[in-house]
Amino acid sequence: MDLLTKSDHRRLSIGNDSESSGTGQRVRLLEGQNRILETLAKGAPLDRVAQTFVLVMEDLFAETCCAFLVLDHDATRLHLSAAPSLAPPLRRTLEDLDLACNGDPSITAVLRREPILIEDSTVDPRWADARAAMRQTGFCACLAQPILDAGGAAVGAVTLFFRDPQTLDTMDSGTIDTLVPAARIAIERERRAQDLATADERLLSLAENIPGVVYQRVVTPDGDIRYTYISEGAYELFGVPAEEIIADPRALFDCHGPEYSHDFRKRLLQASREMTQWDVEASIITRQGEQKWTHAIARPRRKADGTIVWNGIILDATRIKMANMELAAASRAKSEFLANMSHELRTPLNAIIGFSEMMLGVGSGIDAEKYCDYLNAIHSSGKHLLEIINDVLDLAKVEAGKMVLSEELCDLRQVVSSCTRLVVANAEENRIALESDLPADLPPLRADVRKLKQILINLLSNAVKFTAAGGTIRISARVESDGHLALSIADNGEGIPAESLRDVLSPFKQADSGLDRRFDGIGLGLPLSKAMAELHDGTLDIESKLGVGTTVTVHLPAERLETDPLLQIATRRAS
Question: Whole-structure pTM over 0.70, yes or no?
């Protein structure tokens, strides 16, 4: 018979010889049990407890060797934990047992969750490999006892090897039943420790790899604030090592922006009293001097002694904050643009409507001179409206990627000359001098002439608008040492404030954007000029100093300059 039933176990008792020997055996059993429990109580690891268990079993059973096996977490393999007395051939068969193979009595005991007995390996036909190893090492019988947890699931096995054949009547299995619970406790404790270690490792990995700072902060009843844990992300976000913050939280608090730091402690203590969620967006200045925005979220938990524990996270909100600020600025700029656009459209429309109504009202009674004045005003207002609409449509084309170039070789001197003729009257009216410095040997330029003229007219018109009477506007061009073309329009006008330089190149923004601004326009000239320069693979740069003047330079790549002498001559003749 290979299976020990519960009734069989009840039949087996400690000691079979006499009352005195039975008493001695029970004493030894209790002493052995105490040795195992003491090892457990001292917090020894599983392999040491298993070693003690095996030595106690071998002391209680004469001419016996014992093996302690543990089932892995996946319940797929049995691993040998302790078997100090087993000879190598038998030890090797037990070191790593695959439950799917079921080639060993220990495996069968675990799978069936019941003891398995080989009474005599010389006649038992099962588990050939195990029996061969037993015979090779001088063992005749084997008992495999499963170790079951509180729920009845197998967690390991204790296997005893005997030199002589064994039967149920001669087997002292009660001793095993008495000691197995201690083995179960050792395995379950080890598993809990491993689970906790795995959970700690997982949490630590999660905390260290979250793109932000994970922390635990405590606020004591007397108002003391400290961090019991803060992840390494603190260095990346604040520039302060985590261990320094744990040693002194002021290392972190010193990074708070001035508008946040003065009431941080007050707000935290209030939130701790009210047990409200901490949800704060704040500016910080890192230890390296970099300005950032953070978003901190934490929830409170009150301990029995009144201490409030905050578990939370601090995220780097800089990109989101900057994007929101840019969106808000863009929204304001578009609102200002629409207000300016309304003014710019209404003014010429009112002129067109007013003068046309006057012409319709007086009919043929109006004299020719006034008639012509009215027509000129209507024509001028219509042209102004068309310019505004064209600018808006051109910008829409650029932003949609629909604007294309119609390129040809052109003489830059001729292009500049035709553009200055369009603004010279306005410049002379405001007593502004127009000067040019264009070398005679400038090579022909491959460009979209209409868009190139639009760039120049926009820049020249701006220069005239913002230059006071008696000022000067200078147009120059040169081929730089790296071969690219630099075309500049410089004035000695009022200049642009440094904080407005970025705005003037953004659509819908103006340096002077209020409704009470001194100059007309909707602020699209410079952004359009920049976009058209970029369409030509170039750039547009602005240098300006308040009260000194402004220089706008268009840089075009060397590939757009024609170096073939024959083509240069042909271009100049065509111009």
Answer: no
